[in-house]
Amino acid sequence: MAATAHADIRDIEDAWGLFTRVLQNVFLLEARATSIESASIDDLTLAEFVKEHPRVFEERLISRLPELAQTHISDRKEMSALDAFREAIWGSEAMEKTLEAFDPVKGLELCRLMVWRYESEGFAFEAAQRFFGRLAHASAPPDLPPESCDVIRWWRPGVNTMLSPDDLPEVLPWDLEGWSPADIEAAIERYVGVPIDVFAARLRPSGGCTGRLGTSIWSDACKLRALGVARQTLAARLDMAVRYTRGHFTTKVTLDEQGGVTVNATRTSGPFGYDYSPLHSLEVTRFILTFEITNPAIDPSLIIRGSHSTLEEIRRLCFFGCDDPWRLEPEVAARVLGLLR
């Protein structure tokens, strides 16, 4: 039966028309207005076209995402064709075989677009699981930006441990001497594969950054250099202090081997729930928490206030925040952590 239906698909235009019907099946199956058998025939037919024409359908789908976002294919006017595609990923049986036939690199490229353009993290992370396995033993990294390749390199079949930013490398080198704000923004763009303004909007979705991201990072790197403080050391001490907190109680944490630097670290909330690293379009999980760190021996009035994002952003980006509540002044952090006297 699938072979008979396949005879009607002569080219990509026919395949795209069938894809529209496959998306309609998502809603029809949900309303029990069509049978699983009928929807499966459409799915198998489209899957055969995808297999026989490598990357052709996937490239059409990627190029037509804006159109899908504006198209309605059911009586539910609040739901777009793009919403139907999300539903297909999240558990509908309407598109199982077609997704299995996707080229895995193009599939992950689609995931990236869904995150960066349509803020669909849940969709992308669910969909990516379908493609990771076929890339796990590839002899060369896929033609994707480093933010994706770093995650793929870490992933292993059958390993369900959540990937954390701690498992991934720095985006900007520890020493930014000689770099300009433009150099910094160019390096971030190379890593994430999107324009810097798109990345900055995801880094701080609620706003708060009025200037250029590259300028903010460059300025704080200059402050650290003028203080004679290495970002690597500061990030390591900050991470150690937060790791040793338990519950909502203040914990004394010794930050150096000689025992000369002891801080009071308090986890003020969390961990509860989690969010995702803004540096990645694939799943990199951060447990939500906030903390305070003081050093009574140096200056009890100085306080480091931060969140889970502070740890990743300082270590990987030299980003101490901008005009938002979690802005951390490098000099304050260095003094509290015992790196200045």
What is the compact description of this entry?
With 341 residues, the protein is an alpha+beta fold. The protein contains 16 helices and 6 strands.
Low-confidence stretches: 1-7
Number of helices: 16
Mean of pLDDT: 84
Q: How would you spell out the order of helices and strands?
A: HHHHHHHHHHHHHHEEEEEEHH
Give a quick account of the main beta sheet: strands, pairing sense, barrel closure: 4 strands, antiparallel
Distance between the termini: 79 Å
Radius of gyration: 24 Å
Helix content: 40-55%
**How many strands in all?**
6
Relative strand content: 5-15%
Strand order of the largest sheet: 1-2-5-6
Shape: elongated
Oligomeric state, counting identical vs distinct chains:
single chain
- Class derived from helix and strand content: alpha+beta
Which helices and strands, and how do they pair?
Layout: H1 2-6, H2 12-30, H3 36-52, H4 56-63, H5 65-70, H6 81-89, H7 96-101, H8 104-116, H9 121-132, H10 146-154, H11 181-192, H12 196-203, H13 213-227, H14 231-243, E1 250-254, E2 262-269, E3 274-276, E4 285-287, E5 290-294, E6 303-307, H15 308-317, H16 330-336
